Amino acid sequence: MHTAVTLAVVISTCFLQNSLCERQRENKEAEGLKPGSATEMYGYKAISGDVFVMQCAKPFSTGLCGRLYNKSAGPEKSNWMRSDEETSSDRNQFIDDVAVKRCGNALCFLNVSAEHSGTYTCMTGGAMIRFSLEVLEKGSLGCGIKEKSGKTLVLGQGGQIHCPGVNCGNDSVVRGQNVSWYKNATPICAIKSRDIRVVDQQILHLGNVYENDSEDYFCDYTYSQGNGIHWTVRKHVKVSVISRDTDVPPRMIYPHSKETEEVELDQPHTLECRVQFGFQKTFDPIVEWRVSYHSNPEGTMEPMKMGQLQVNSRTIQEITLVRTAHISVVKLIHLDSTFTCLANNSVGNSNATVRLKRKPKASLTLVIACPLVSLLFLASLCITIHIYWLEITILYRVYRPFRETLTGKEFDAFVSYVPCPPSSEEVGGVHVTKEPLEVLLPRILEEKWGYRLCLLERDLLPGGAYAADVVWAIHSSRLLVCLMSPDYMSSTCLFELETGIRAMQQDACLRIILIWTNTGPVPATRTSLGTHLTAAKPSTNTTLSVPLSPGPPADTMPPVVRRAIRVLPALYWNPQDQGRMVTSSNSGSRFWRSLRKTLPMTPRGVSSGC
From what superkingdom does this record's organism come (predicted)? Predict the structure, then answer.
């Protein structure tokens, strides 16, 4: 415990002592930079005609890896003044010079000259820094041949950049000095991602030249004179990056080897030629159009009237040029001629041809017929949809997926039927009576499967209005089951089916299923459009395959019923399925399996949303 307390006290003491020393050092620097105090003067020497940058900060000592200037600093961070021209009224104003602009916290001289020599003062963070700028003429460096301040490097190759004037005789102060290099504002010593370094203390070596090496480079070296001023000589090198000379001829972008263009007679037409040239130091491209008239027995090519050669796109490695040729009026002779675009550079040449063909005129018949046919098609489609709207609606209601509901429904199914007498058959000399489907179906669905059915004769009080009771019963049921028989088709029960069809169009949670029986003459269903119904063939769910007799004429049924039974789902009842119900141990006949799939998934008493 005592060791921990002692350690904490020691750490706190060291921290406070370090903070106090740092504060004292900052106070001394600020005191030395206050206006009117003995401020140290820093000097810059620049070469006339160069780009020169002077940062509002102390020049970095040789070997330090600091930025040439802070590009992200706003102009409000530094306030520059020409000390020899400063007055109390314009203390915060700088001389208006188009060759001088602000670059972050620095002054950028786009073309420094002798008139920019003088004393400069900048204020930053409450501190004042003074600079003396001396602009030298290039001839004053003592070089017999003026060293160039520009350098051209070849893309993909190595290169070297020399600091201008360093090797001149009069610049003896450089002997043995290290030169600091900057790429724009970034020090070379901070670039770690590639092979770029300073060799022989003065030469910047690039192992591989990239396109982004085309920048402004600055080289600095610092020395002191007897007057106490620390001088920084800053020189500028403008580096340009070019590609290697191409070794391929020009490439035709358009036209390709052979092209055909459609034209209209007695109308003007313009031919366009786009050619891609590789880079060349000495670039003298040739792009021209020539025409060869086939009626000319000599077959010579004549120059055409062309527009100016224009640049379409340019990169460091290639340039795309465009030249057009204009035909004022297209005649028949032009359709029988060949137009050639010729391109040439010092490596080789390329060419491509264009032939003209007459643009087919739009047929008047097609111009009239196409809109007319489209209009007739749309009209026919609308009429067809209108005629079969009922069938389309029923199909949509029947086959679209939906969740079942118990809300507002008292019955699982409403069974519509016409009573039929029991039938009997002799089996082994014994007469066996078979119950009709309208008796068997309620017993199976209610007693064994747990569904609640609505039967008019059983569940509705006698003496009521028949039509109102039917409407109420159907709207209170989730499913309408119609036992279709010959008697049903000629009875008033068709009103129940018609009411169910109209209710299904309004109630998305109501289904209708038809069950066709073979007790007596079986009516026809699902006919094509005609005046009478023909015998229906069993569907995939059928279990009956007996001849079906013709039903009553179609005009004896309501139109809604006649159209709806073509698309409503149906099952076919075979008396042989009477004892083949679905049980836990027996999958039952196809009729009972299909009926079970058609019925609601959950009987009454199990709640679910619609």
Answer: Eukaryota
